[in-house]
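Here is a typical protein record:
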Amino acid sequence: MIRTAIGVLAVLVLSSCAMISESQCRAGGDWRAFGESDGFEGRAPEYLSEYAQVCAKYGAKPAPAEYEAGRQAGLKGYCTPQNGFQRGAIGDAYLGVCPKDVEPKFVAELLRGRQLRPSTPELYPYFAAVDQDERALAAGTNDAERAQIRARLIQTQWWIRHLLNHKGTFSLD
């Protein structure tokens, strides 16, 4: 029962993330701007499929090349050591999106920032799951496997934020 609720919630969380209107879809959208915003938030390339699903309802399609160019530009702001530290301190998951040349410094600061994240007993299993899934993501052998792991990381990150912001309101034990 709880696993079903979690699965349904994960789908809702992931699908509610793609905030694009009918008019934006029909007008062609500023796909570079959407990509840049998503990159700056550290979102994975699979996020474009969320836009595609929304826009398909209106007979429109995203522009993958423009979106990815924007996402890469946005990742330059996301993948900084300073941002890595901040993301680590608030307990964010890392989706393995940084370019390989800057990833080591980002991850080093992410781990340093994680030393500041809350260590309450109810959060420990979630942080352990993030750590395990991030290792699995780094070792992922194909895009489909990595997309699945990223979805789990997004779901776990949502629960961490929920528990941090609503202390004592919910537990999965």
Remarks:
- The chain has nine helices and no strands.
- Residues 1-77 form one domain.
